[in-house]
Design a protein that fits this description.
There is one protein chain. By secondary structure, the protein is α/β, with parallel strands linked by helices. It contains eight helices and 13 strands. Helix 5 (169-188) crosses helix 8. The radius of gyration is 20 Å and the shape is globular. Helix content is 37%, strand content 22%.
């Protein structure tokens, strides 16, 4: 695959702590589209310093629409869709040059999760389809994030990408509060039989935070990553705890006097 036939699409909102590091790892790319949700910091100014970057702005409504808007500005057959806290290792470009796509519509990447710039030995961060043919794929909403709908079965890339978010912890907390509300509505509105085993654990409300703590610390071995491992374990446990609180609120709303809210549907399954 010729890297010149790929447009990189990045979503940003107040990503001054990350954007330059990500763009520095994309110096090989000839076309980079940054879709910014009207950042209030200097994210856009930093991005515009790179000659291959084109910054467009759109008011944020959800991740799927934001991503699909970015795809309309890609002028190549292939798109590399990234978050602004991703890092592209040097081996990725070599893999691209030797990649035979054939009839494949999309390629998934695994991730190394970094804390303060250092990769952990493991994480819960899932693989994601990042490289795909624009004409055969599109995004849909999926809880607090977006999901790429692909024609056919995606293949895995050999090179893992880095997730290296260095925004302040206050930003992480504010995002988790918002994400937990969206994720709770998704879980509450999905029939039990359609949930993955992990989401079924979350729907129990009480098991999620406890299992995540011990699973990441002991089974994933993050206890051996020292302070960085503990940082990740505590973050994921807190995130699961917020989700449990949201789900519990939905149940309490259902059992309280008055008409249940629309987000309460699905908890009866």
């Amino acid at each position: 695959m010729n890297p010149d036939d790929i447009t990189v699409v990045l979503l940003t909102y107040n990503e001054a702590a990350n954007i330059e590091r990500t763009l520095d790892s994309l110096t090989w790319a000839r076309q980079i589209v940054v879709v910014d949700s009207f950042s209030t910091d200097d994210t856009c100014d930093r991005a515009k310093r790179y000659p291959t970057v084109r910054v467009i702005q759109r008011a944020f409504d959800n991740f799927a629409n934001q991503c699909n808007y970015g795809l309309t500005h890609a002028e190549t057959e292939w798109v590399l869709s990234l978050d602004s806290d991703y890092g592209i290792p040097a081996g990725f470009i070599e893999e691209l040059r030797h990649l035979e796509a054939g009839s494949t519509a999309a390629f998934q990447a695994r991730f190394r999760y970094c804390v303060f710039g250092q990769p952990l030995r493991a994480s819960l961060y899932p693989p994601r389809a990042v490289l795909f043919r624009k004409a055969l794929c599109f995004y849909v909403e999926d809880g607090h994030t977006q999901l790429l709908k692909v024609e056919g079965i995606p293949r895995f890339l050999e090179t893992s990408l880095d997730h290296d978010d260095r925004k302040p912890i206050e930003r992480w907390f504010s995002e988790q509060i918002r994400y937990s509300a969206l994720e709770a509505r998704k879980l509450a509105g999905t029939p039990w039989r359609q949930l993955s085993w992990a989401d079924r654990v979350r729907r129990t409300i009480f098991l999620g935070p406890v299992l995540v703590f011990f699973y990441t610390l002991l089974w994933k071995g993050l206890i051996f990553d020292g302070r960085r491992g503990w940082h990740y374990v505590l973050q994921r446990t807190l995130a699961e705890g917020l989700l449990s609180i949201r789900l519990l609120e939905l149940k309490l709303t259902r059992t309280s006097p008055g008409k249940p809210g629309p987000s309460d549907r699905g908890l009866r399954d």
